[in-house]
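Sample entry (438 residues):
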Amino acid sequence: MKRFLLTLWIVFCIGSINGSGAPASGLERFYVGTYSGRIYQSTLDLGAALFGTITQAVATTDPSFIAMAPNRAFLYCVNESPGTVSAFSINPTNGSLKLLNQVPSNGGAPAHIVVDRSGKNVIVANYNGGSVTVFPIQTSGKLGTASSHIQHPGTSPHAHCVTLDRGNQFALVCDKGLDQIRSYVFDATAGTLTTNKTLITTVAAGSGPRHMTFDPEYKRAYVICESSSTVVGFNYDGENGTLTSFQTVSTLPPAGFGGNTTAEIAVHPSGKFLYGSNRGFNSIVVYAIESSTGILTPVQQQATGATPRNFAIDPTGGFCIVAGQVSNDIRLYRINQDTGSLSETGKRLTAAAPVCILPIILQPPQPVLSVQAISNNTFQFTLGNTLSLFTYQLYNAYYLGTGTNWNLLATGDPGQIRFVLTNQFGAEFFQAGVVTNY
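Predicted structure, serialized as C-alpha cells:
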C-alpha cells in the first residue's frame, strides 16, 4: 500500500483554517500492450484530463496482455505469436522496462496473464490448445519453471482469461471454445491449480465466454461473451468457488448489429456501473448495476475508435481509457459519477495496434485539510479533494521540523472525509497531517 503525506500548521482554538495553495490533482501512469512489437507508456493528469507524451517502455514481440506485481517493481506480459511469457523490471523514476527473462508459455497463443494477490505467481491462459499455466515469481522478479499446468479437454478448447477471487483461493478460467467457466483451487504458496469440487459452469452454446470481472465486494461476477455479444451475471459463492447465473443481457442496442464481437469487461470502482467493449459496432456499452440484486440496466452506447479490443477504468473511477486496435489510437472518456455514462474529452494518443491498457496511480489527488473548532479542544477535521476508494489517516505533532514524532489520531473508513477529534496537546499550535493510503 502506498502512502502520501500532507502536513499543515494549524492554530489551536481557532474557527477554521484551510490549506493554502492549489492542491495537486493527481497523476497516473499507464502501460499499453500492443500487436506492434512494443509496450508503450504514458501518463494521465487527473485534474486537467490530459494525456502525457506516449513513449516506448520496451520492445518485445506481441505483448498483447500485461499485468503488474503488487509491489509495482515488475511487469509481466504474454508474447502471443511466439508463445512466451516475459518478465520486466520497472524503473521507478521514468517507468521504463528492462527484460529479466522469457519462458515458454506451455501452450499456443497465450492470451491473458494475471499476477496473484500475493505477488508469488503469474497465471497464463493459453488460447490455442486451451490450457492454463502457473509460473512462480522469483525474488529477482524473474519467472521460474512452471509449477502447474492444466490442459482443458475437448477438440477445441480456448482458454481466454484467468480471474482470481478476493481470497486468492480460486482461479476462474473462461474457456471460449468449451462455453465454460472452469473453477480451480489455487495454492499461491505451492503455485498449483487443482480441480475444484464444482468444476464447470456452462453458458449458452456458442456464446464464447471471453473475460470475467468481479464487483468490488466479490459477491457477483460478470462474464462478457465474445460470439453472442452478451454479458452474463453470476452470484459468486466465495467459500466454494462456484457461480450461479441470474441474468443475460445483450451488449448491443435493441436493433442489434451483424458481425460484432465483444472483448473487455470492467466494473466501476464504486460497484455501481459495468462496462463492456463491442468490436464491429465499435462502442463501450454502459450498464447500471442494481445494488441489491446485481441486475444490469443499459445506460449508454458510447462510440469509440475502431476495434476497442481493450479498455481500462482508471483506479480513481474518473476516466475510461480505450484502446482502438484498428484505429491505432487511445481515447480518453470522462465518467459521470451519478449515471456511469461516458463523455468525450477529445484527448487522444497515437499508438500502433494497442490492445491492453494498464493504469496505476503515481500520486493521488492531494487532500485539502480544514479544521473547525467545536469546543476549546475538540475539532472537526474535514478533507476535500478526496476519492471514495482511498483510506485517509490523521496525525498530529507538537514539534516542527525533522525528527517530529507523529501521533496517529484516526484511521477513516474508505472515503471518510469528516473526523471529530480531541487534541491532547496543551500548546497554542499543533501540526496536523493527512496520509492517503492507496
